[in-house]
Amino acid sequence: MLKNIDPRLNADVLHALHLMGHGETVALVDTNFPADGVSRHTSYGKLLRLDNLTSAEAMETVLSVLPLDSPIQPSVGRMQVMGSPNEMPEVQREVQAVLRESEGEDGSLYDIERFAFYEEAKKAYCVIATGERRFYGCFLLTKGVIAPL
């Protein structure tokens, strides 16, 4: 156990988030996402897991250590619902609330078409699978920087 580190973060996830550089992305995905196969295409090359967390809980946990990219550009994308791209399911609204609590007004989500999301996830630094069982609990986060002291 470490001080000031969310105990829901496991060592593998914490290590990968630490290794990421500015502008690299992490795919935070639900349990139905083809996470293992997609993760083999990423820079990290293997799947990371936060199995016992919902998408919102996992987002809160990751944001406890991961700075998001500049508020000048959107830094968290959501997978759009097929056939209803403007629909925002409850799982995404919950994540949006966590994001806004963490980032304030800059905490908005941008849209990524479902199949484009798969391709973008392959380009990510890593993929973290959650225990989220609801559909469309898939997000792409862009890492930002920590300002100098």
UniProtKB/TrEMBL annotation:
It catalyses: alpha-L-fucose = beta-L-fucose; beta-D-ribopyranose = beta-D-ribofuranose. It holds the Pfam family RbsD_FucU. One of its GO terms (biological process) is fucose metabolic process. One of its GO terms (molecular function) is D-ribose pyranase activity. Keywords: Isomerase, Plasmid. InterPro entries: RbsD-like_sf (IPR023750), RbsD/FucU_mutarotase (IPR050443), RbsD_FucU (IPR007721). The keyword Isomerase applies. This is Fucose-binding protein. It comes from Qingshengfaniella alkalisoli.
